[in-house]
Write a structure and sequence with these properties.
Number of domains: 2
Strand content: 5-15%
Structural class: alpha+beta
Shape: elongated
Helix content: 55-70%
Order of helices and strands: HHEHHHHHHEEEEEEHHEH
Length: 342
């Protein structure tokens, strides 16, 4: 096992694509901080930056692992007397330090360039969030090695890995929208403002209150059916515009069309927990901080409450992430043992 692991690590660390991936990951971290870091204490990391590094990881692992099929490396390892299960395990273990190196290359410029706002945040939470992010990278490394061990073509495998990352990322946001949508919506009309605005000021598990400031020229009110209308009784949308006939009328208190219950909610909850990308938003939220001349104590309190809420979600996803990583490793090990390599 030790010889196989050394050989695999040497193959990764001496490949030009590995160093290109390192530079790309570092560049992604630099650009994220450059565009989000203001002159004052402001930092807002984008989770898509870490997704870009996952793409780089998928390319690197798929090229290295699938090339061993084409070059006959797997076949030679079997001829040399190495069990197939040990070969797969060595590939999986070698992918982990490579994944950690790409993650470190992305995080290092972030920690250096954003040192001032980061020192305002609890170090323990930053380390915990970094650990969760690293586990996400490990899970995707296991997924990539699993797919590459089953396929021989480099391009199809790379496209499949890309598709898996995109699909899981989109699925994460879809499940989040439905699972965290309140059951009922309550709409409140505020005083007219120079420009119409819509904002959710409070949200809970059952009700979400939406405050709407209508344009001054709009005379909006609620009719007997609690529908939003103008003086002529015409239905309006939340911006004071005539309602398109294809849309449902806006009512003061109504069921939220995004709310799901029953078996659908159970299925979405399971998918949400098993998704390796799901903790990405909660982890990156721990690296967000804003404080400038216009920041009030209430705004700082709201930001802290948001970070606290996201931080409480991390332990809930940790066992599921470990389970996904272990399941991919065990399944890949079992299937690779049956694969014809000679």
């Amino acid at each position: 096992m030790r010889a196989l692991l050394k050989t695999n690590l040497r193959r990764y660390f001496t490949h030009p694509l590995f160093w290109l991936a390192i530079l790309f990951s570092a560049g992604a971290g630099v650009m994220d901080v450059y565009f989000s870091l203001g002159q004052e204490l402001f930092l807002m990391l984008d989770d898509f930056t870490f997704l870009l590094v996952l793409f780089a990881q998928a390319i690197l692992l798929s090229v290295i692992v699938t090339s061993q099929h084409k070059d006959g490396v797997f076949r030679n390892k079997v001829i040399a007397g190495n069990p197939k299960g040990r070969i797969f395990l060595a590939e999986l273990l070698a992918a982990l330090p490579v994944s950690a190196a790409l993650f470190a290359a992305c995080m290092l410029p972030i920690c250096v360039m954003a040192y001032r706002p980061l020192r305002e945040l609890p170090a323990a939470r930053l380390l915990a969030a970094a650990g969760v992010l690293l586990l996400i990278y490990f899970s995707f490394a296991a997924l990539t090695v699993f797919l590459c061990s089953r396929m021989r073509g480099r391009i199809p495998t790379m496209l499949l890995c890309f598709g898996a990352v995109f699909l899981l990322y989109a699925l994460s946001y879809t499940c989040n929208d439905y699972l965290h949508a309140p059951e009922m919506l309550e709409i409140v009309l505020d005083e007219p403002s120079t420009d119409g605005s819509v904002s959710v000021t409070s949200s809970g598990q059952r009700y979400s209150t939406i405050h709407v400031a209508m344009p001054p020229e709009t005379s909006a009110h609620w009719n007997a059916e609690d529908q939003l209308v103008d003086q002529g009784g015409n239905l309006l949308d939340l911006y004071g515009e005539p309602l398109d006939p294809m849309y449902k009328p806006i009512v003061r208190i109504s069921p939220n069309p995004q709310y799901v219950s029953g078996p659908v909610r159970i299925i979405l909850s399971v998918i949400d927990c098993l998704n390796p990308v799901r903790p990405l938003d909660a982890a990156t939220a721990q690296y967000c901080y804003e404080k400038n001349a216009d920041t009030t104590a209430e705004m700082l309190k709201q930001d802290q409450q948001y970070r606290d809420l996201q931080f409480e979600l991390l332990p809930q996803y940790l066992p599921w992430q470990l389970g996904v990583f272990a399941a991919l490793g065990i399944l890949g090990w079992l299937l690779f043992r049956r694969k014809e390599l000679v």
